[in-house]
């Protein structure tokens, strides 16, 4: 496309809250035939809330410790946990670490604490306590995200968290499908939650339990099958997949890193802008032929 046509397209995008940083991506977007979507914060609001919790140890100190740990995380799940717990007392968390795709850890009063999914428990050789199994089974059937709180030797609590699908997500998926574009959902979350969200939005394919590096590998796999791939994500953990995609789209309410990496940013985080960008691209490219 001519620079002038592209400038018009970029301007039209900006008018609709679509920031096109890389003008070349606007030309390319017309050729997209696969769209990969991150779940949390992209398809869902990313504002999850705790719906149930089960504490194997009743000591309220431990609730404060979990709050202190989650206070260091910027993950949407951390905000849900914090809203549910009594405010953290002034515990100092040392050596706080994010374990990508699994959760967080830190030392409080010289003791290691972890909060995250079942994979994180396994990484610490911790098994799911017998007393929790039935409860967790029920939560997973309700498509809850289940996270655990533990120290180095013992599981202390399990929490069930629910996140709602964004208004317009199903409409966006339908519009993409009408454009002949295949849709994929990728998430670090469990298979039941992924299946539930896929069904609710009409997304054709999903993969659960996916680590950030695997998100990028999945995009590459699609490209090796000859597909032109757009990736939409919101988080730090999506940046590798965004970088791998032919066209990368960041949700404006996500992390700054995702927006730095992405070709296109959707300021409102409304997924309906994704099929619109593709239409805009087609219109822009058409102008010059
Ligand atoms: P996604 O954005 O696809 O849900 P993430 O990599 O952000 O994937 O998260 C994967 C999983 O890691 C979450 O579903 C959750 O189980 C766990 N996790 C991440 N951060 C936290 C946190 N601060 N507290 C508890 N669990 C967490
Ligand atoms: Mg995310």
UniProtKB/TrEMBL annotation:
<protein>
    <submittedName>
        <fullName>Cu(2+)-exporting ATPase</fullName>
    </submittedName>
</protein>
<comment type="similarity">
    <text>Belongs to the cation transport ATPase (P-type) (TC 3.A.3) family. Type IB subfamily.</text>
</comment>
